[in-house]
Design brief:
4-stranded parallel beta sheet, globular, 6-stranded mixed beta sheet, binds zinc ion, 40% helix, alpha/beta, Rossmann fold, 15 helices, binds pyridoxal-5'-phosphate, 419 residues
Length: 419
């Protein structure tokens, strides 16, 4: 049973069958999954969702597959944590962390999009799946494709973090490290996708893949007691996540599943060395100007974002804003989240935390509203980025005297200095 009507061009609204298509052949607009919302409205209730599995498949009626899912049985339904200590730091009473860095097979929100893309790939008859990745997608496609029994080709920029490379190779994919940045990798993959009949999750399966990101938005609303928050801050790479969080809230609103009126402002977080979307938002420009990425937030290093225009429109439509933060602020953001909430996020999460602080300082986030941060990936994968910024262990010989001299005395001295 499926409520998918087909694919539809985001520009000219031409309709297409639900195949592995992604560009409109008339206007080159990108294609998006289009549902029968009247049909969904007749059967989908809060109770039905609540009785569903504790994974993203509880929202199956709003996802683009025909039959049973083929991957991602443990993906989604991650914790929404009330962040009181971080909130106190910033003077916010209702701050929440949507923590996608845990409870996922490969520790990032990419396990959502891959669950949907691989399930659809199976239905469309692909035996090989592939992707162009900034790191987390590589981990997730490699792992989920291994589990679901696909052949797998993964393309990455050669300079990725060690943990993202090892965390891909361990699943025995064909890993191809390209001498270039993500935009070079993506261009190469588009060529390969037109020659080989593979399911590229973020190219010819992109319309299906992108729908997976909606589940992060669905969960935020459900976990807040079927309420849309006042603010969501999310990081952007291609811009897809931001557009789909908004689509999710609009769908819940349209289906009558929200308690409150939808007035959520969507804010975009980007690093200084790669901020094409945030720059367009902050300069009120309609043009997304491609850049050459140079940032420690490698998972966000997409200089020519496929969904940049749509992300910018979502931010504008929702009256949201954007922030651009430096590598130094990213490191501070990672450490602040760890120190206050016990959550170790990767560089993209540091971008989100630092951007939120900036948005609060600029008065763009109200202190009394409900604010949700999308923390999208795990810090163990990007240790290089903060190794120099977290201090060192105290090295001692295994005896009490050494402990008291090197640790306790030192601590006393430090406490004294502070006092
Ligand atoms: C891919 C990724 C994003 C951004 O995703 P887009 O949908 O391409 O904007 C954010 N955070 C992390 C950790 C990611 O891996
Ligand atoms: Zn079109």
């Amino acid at each position: 049973m499926s409520f998918v009507k087909g694919l539809r061009c985001r520009e000219c609204s031409r309709e297409y069958p639900k195949q592995a298509l992604y560009v409109c052949e008339y206007c080159f607009g990108s294609l998006e999954v289009h549902y029968d919302y009247d049909g969904i409205k007749k059967t989908l209730t809060r109770e039905k969702i609540q009785k569903g599995p504790k994974s993203l498949w509880r929202y199956r009626d709003l996802l683009p597959i025909d039959g049973d899912p083929a991957a991602g049985f443990y993906s989604g339904f991650t914790p929404l944590v009330k962040a009181d200590r971080l909130g106190e730091e910033w003077g916010l009473k209702n701050l929440y962390i949507k923590d996608d860095s845990v409870c996922h097979p490969t520790w990032s929100f990419k396990d959502r999009v891959v669950a949907v893309a691989l399930s659809r790939a199976r239905e469309l008859g692909f035996d090989t799946v592939a992707c162009a990745s900034t790191g987390n997608l590589a981990n997730s496609v490699a792992a989920n494709a291994a589990w679901a029994g696909f052949k797998r080709y993964i393309f990455i920029p050669a300079n990725l973090e060690q943990a993202k490379i090892v965390g891909t190779l361990v699943y025995s994919p064909n890993l191809v490290a390209v001498n270039g940045n993500y935009d070079d990798v993506n261009r190469l993959c588009s060529e390969i996708a037109s020659k080989y009949r593979w399911g590229f999750v973020n190219i010819n399966l992109r319309a299906y893949y992108a729908e997976g990101s909606k589940t992060l938005g669905f969960e935020i609303a459900e976990q807040l007691g079927w309420r849309a928050p006042d603010h969501i801050v999310a990081p952007a790479a291609s811009g897809s996540l931001i557009t789909k969080i908004w689509k999710a809230l609009k769908e819940f609103d349209k289906l009558g599943l929200l308690e409150n009126k939808l007035t959520t402002k969507i804010h975009c977080a980007q690093p200084e060395g790669c901020s094409p979307i945030a720059t367009a938002v902050l300069t009120a420009s309609d043009v997304i100007k491609p850049v050459k990425p140079q940032t420690i937030a490698k998972s966000l290093a997409i200089g020519n974002p496929a969904d940049g225009y749509y992300a910018k429109d979502v931010i504008r439509d929702s009256s949201g804003s954007a922030a651009i933060v430096s590598d130094e602020e990213i490191r501070e953001g990672i450490k602040l989240l760890a120190r206050t909430e016990g959550i170790f996020t990767e560089t993209a999460g540091g971008v989100t935390v630092a951007s939120t602080k900036r948005l609060i300082d600029e008065g763009k986030i109200s202190k009394d509203g409900i604010v949700v941060l999308a923390i999208t990936g795990n810090g163990l994968k990007t240790q290089e980025a903060i190794q120099q910024a977290v201090g060192e262990a105290k090295f001692i010989e295994p005896n009490l005297a050494a402990f008291e001299e090197k640790v306790m005395q030192k601590e006393k001295k430090e406490t004294h200095h502070v006092g």
